[in-house]
Amino acid sequence: MAVVDIKMDFFKHDAQAGGFFPNTHANPGFSIDKFLGETGQNYLIEGIRGTGKTHILKMINETCLDSYQEKKILPVYVSLASVHEWVESDVKLFRIHLYANIVTKIINTIEQNREKIRLAGNSNFQKSVKKIAQMFGLNNSEKIEIIIKRIKELNEKLLAELNYNPENIKSIFGSQSSVTASTTAKIAVPQTGSFSATASGTYSENEQKEFLFVGQSLSHSNAANFLVNFILELKNILNHQYTYLLIDECSEVSKEAQIEIFRLLKLIRGALTDDMHENAAYFCASVYPTPITYYPSKNFGDSFNFDVGHDAIMEYVSMDELSDDYLEFYKEITNNRIRELLSDKGYNNYLDILENDKCLILAAYFSNGNVRRYIEILKHAYDNLMQRIGHKQSPTDLEKLNAKDIEEALSSIVPNQILASNKLNPEDFDILDNLVTRMNKRNKKNETENKSKVEKDKLPANVYFTVSRSQALRLGNLFMQGAIHDKGKTRVKKYYKDEGLRGPLLMLDLAVAFHDGAIDKNRAAEIFTKDLIKNAKSGYLWCQDISFD
Question: Do residues 246 and 60 make contact, with C-beta atoms less than 8 angstroms apart?
């Protein structure tokens, strides 16, 4: 039997190497252009794993470069996903990692886009060139091209030291180091671009001084201010609108490292030029929900406050299952991926790989707004299809993904990803089992009663519930895994009434609800497309009040 042919690139996501496909983008309830105002704004993009934060930042980066000649916004994308554990545990070394990466990425962006980004400059061009040279301990009489090249080399060698010679860099710049700029001992380092930790060669005395000077500047407690000053001077050299720092995976590092990130973001907010109405830089950073993300506060003993809403606009990323555009969004991203990656197979839309619309409905709602999970569901469904057809042969029929393939994908995704045992503790499982049992009991009772009711009087299946605010604090792991969703953070609130609700409005994940039997599996597609909306339009009349005591 012939089988629909889907190559593995179709199942890649943005966090994987080679998984970013800008032509497959679909707006998740907002346009990328909203992040690219002429005057700029500071944003935090919040969401759990897989909701599309990395994709949005990469799309902003791509859009800025494509429209640079028009908008003059310089994007700088930096991911913190691969920070070594020993680097994030020492804040001085983390500063080197963060700021050397940003400086290097700024220069790389300029070099790789020379046809668009020119050293146009303004009246302060020469003054800023000399200032930048002084900041990095270089000869300020050199040409700008030589200075920029040398700055890049120094920062790349600092990063090489962090990767290939950790003990050496720790002894020089770590929190316990007593090395000063006057140190005369030779420092053995890898050559730029080398993959060997034992590469030969040492610095000349002048190179050694430059290396120490830059390393100490970037590891110092005032390093964030150093970087902001660099960006301010860069504006005079490029004469662009502003630099846009796109910092990904901010919550993947330690609490101390997160404090340093937010210190930088706080300073960027105040990176004013000589024109008090103009900033030289803005930021858009991706974060996980609290408590995974730590926002500095003087109440907790930190030296500064970072206040969401005041210091940055929060944009929560997750398609709401009640959105009028929910299914259209998944149709669009599926069609876009097919046209981008499977057009050589003659495929053009989702029905070329899915048996019917029910398949799309199930996969989309099982994802519960998580795009990466949606792609994973299709991947596991395709694996199921390949196993199912086995040795069957047919010269005419083309076997596509069917509803059973989609449903069976959850047998792997729910227990191994959403409810992964290394991400949840026994209390989390007890809470979830309690919740599923109560919803199963209520929904079965409703299904029985509905048999004697006319259609308009039938009770909808329910996956919504409320808990007290204090008990909601116990659900952090379940929120992060996407087993429970906070409806207060989603974009669609038009059906919401808060009369009678005594705490946050929450939702059991639809994939978990199906897999664990909280809803009638035979009616899943109908529940997703009809019952959820009926429940919401009533003001969540059938929402359950839950206590886990």
Answer: yes
- CA-nearest of 323, 314, 325 to 487 is 323
Q: Which helix (H) or strand (E) holds 78?
A: strand 73-79
DSSP 186-207: --B-PPTT---TT---B--HHH
Average pLDDT over residues 56-60: 96
Run of H or E residues at 44: strand 43-46
In degrees, rounded to 5, the angle at the alpha carbon of residue 261 between the alpha carbons of residues 235 and 228 is 20
Return the SS3 of 483. coil
Q: Give the pLDDT band of residue 353 (cuts 50, 70, 90).
A: very high
How far apart, in whole angstroms, are the C-alpha atoms of residue 237 and residue 125? 5
Q: What percentage of the chain exceeds 90 in pLDDT?
A: 66
Per the DSSP assignment, residues forming a β-bridge with 58 are none
- Fill in the amino acid letter for 458: K
Q: From CA 24, how far away is CA 14, in angstroms rounded? A: 11
* DSSP letter (8 states) at residue 28: S
Q: Note whether 168 and 189 are within 8 A (CB).
A: yes
- pTM for the model stands at 0.89
Give 415 or 497, the one with higher predicted confidence: 415
> Measured between alpha carbons, how far is 445 from 542 in angstroms, rounded to an integer?
12
Of the candidates 244, 220, 257, which has an alpha carbon nearest to the alpha carbon of residue 80? Answer: 257
- In single-letter form, the type of residue at position 361 comes to I
**Which residues have C-beta within 8 Å of that of residue 528, sequence separation ≥ 6?**
321, 361, 362, 365, 510
| Average pLDDT of span 91-115 | 95
Cα→Cα distances 182→7, 142, 186, 217, 415, Å:
58, 24, 12, 14, 57
Structure tokens at 85: 């554990």
Which of 25-29, 105-109, 457-461 is the most confident on average? 105-109
The candidate with the shortest Cα–Cα distance to 522, out of 404, 368, 441, 415, is: 404
Q: Quote the tokens at residue 475.
A: 């659900």
The pair of three-digit structure tokens given for residue 424, joined into one six-digit string:
């949840």
Q: Quick check: 188 pLDDT over 80?
A: no
d(CA 315, CA 76): 20
Q: Which pair of tokens denotes residue 252?
A: 């993947």
pLDDT, average across residues 422-438: 97
Q: How far apart are CA 117 and CA 114, in angstroms?
A: 5
**Could you tell me if 12 and 379 are in contact, meaning their C-beta atoms sit under 8 angstroms apart?**
no
Flag whether pLDDT at 178 surpasses 80.
no
Nearest residue to 330 (alpha-carbon basis) of 528, 130, 61: 528
Angle at 172 between CA 153 and CA 137, to 5 degrees: 45
Query: Contact, 376 vs 338, CB < 8 A?
Result: no
Tell me the pLDDT band of 356, cut-offs 50, 70 and 90. very high
Burial of 420 (0-12, 13-18, 19+ CB in 10 A): exposed
In angstroms, rounded to a whole number, what is the distance separating the alpha carbons of residues 78 and 6?
Answer: 32
DSSP 8-state class, residue 283: E
Token pair for residue 508?
Answer: 């059991």
